[in-house]
């Protein structure tokens, strides 16, 4: 898209502010910025974590990422750059960064440097940030959908108890309820008020222990607990709208996953038309998300589930390769 075309789009529409958290992943970041440029927000907040002074490779990669964002933001845009001089970690970066953002704007779309958003994701956020801005039972919007593809979703979105962090949006009034530190008994009390099935309760109890021991350092789990504590939900699209491309050796938290996420594919426009499903249906869909996503990430699936998962992944790969071959034949 030409610069003059981008300028006209930016001047014609007042877009939702976008927040981007980056570190050292230049290849991934370039693709994320390409998607943001297509949306053309009028305000952009970029927060960059620092590097370990003992690691010259990390320093070089971080500096390259910072140069990239300075060069790639080439549309009319009010940009705030916050480059940390020391390594503070993603949890602290998100917590401090969003507090700063919401001191300036009432709502925002949040991305990390490995989350490539579709055009429909930005539209989904625009629509629903307006629609639910005064509904305190909705605390956030997610861009990811992990419902098993075999299950039919009779609507464009559902209200989940699981807010996902790979492309999301929220309001100032919701982020105020976030607490980055909670005592063990508080975490357990909030968990048991959810009345999850035994398997889910056991899973989240293990997460509590890891959070308390320091085995997990993640703002995202405390964001989930903020939803539970306030009896709120995350509006989640019926199809996946954000692609996570960061499952590799450059990741900080997801490098151990052998295969990509099992997201729900489909026409992204389906998330923009129709109604939101009922709470009872939403809870049924959450059970699928627990099995298809959280349990899978924790590596606590049975051998049969792992075999089925592998076969499904191989089937998708074959279909994708077949589609690429047929496309190349038509081109010739």
Poorly predicted runs:
6-12, 253-258, 300-306, 327-332
Number of strands: 10
| Overall residue-averaged pLDDT value | 87
- Strands ordered across the widest β-sheet: 3-2-1-4-8-6-9-7
Task: Quickly give the structural class.
Answer: alpha/beta
Give helix and strand order, one letter per element, not per position.
Answer: HEHEHEHEEHEEEHHHHEEHH
CATH topology category name of the largest domain: Spore Coat Polysaccharide Biosynthesis Protein SpsA, Chain A
Helix content: 40-55%
User: Overall 3D geometry?
Assistant: globular
Largest sheet: 8 strands, mixed
Cα distance spanning the termini: 26 Å
Question: How many structural domains does the protein architecture include?
Answer: 2
Radius of gyration: 20 Å
User: How large is the share of residues in beta strands?
Assistant: 5-15%
Number of helices: 11
Tell me the CATH architecture of the largest domain: Alpha-Beta Complex
Which class of the largest domain in CATH terms?
Alpha Beta
What does this structure look like?
There is one protein chain. The protein is of the alpha/beta class and 332 residues long. The protein folds into 2 domains: 1-113, Rossmann fold, CATH 3.40.50; 117-301, Spore Coat Polysaccharide Biosynthesis Protein SpsA, Chain A. Helices cover 46% and strands 14% of the residues. Strands 3-2-1-4-8-6-9-7 form an 8-stranded mixed β-sheet, with helices on both faces. The protein is globular, with a radius of gyration of 20 Å. Residues 6-12, 253-258, 300-306 and 327-332 have low confidence and may be disordered.
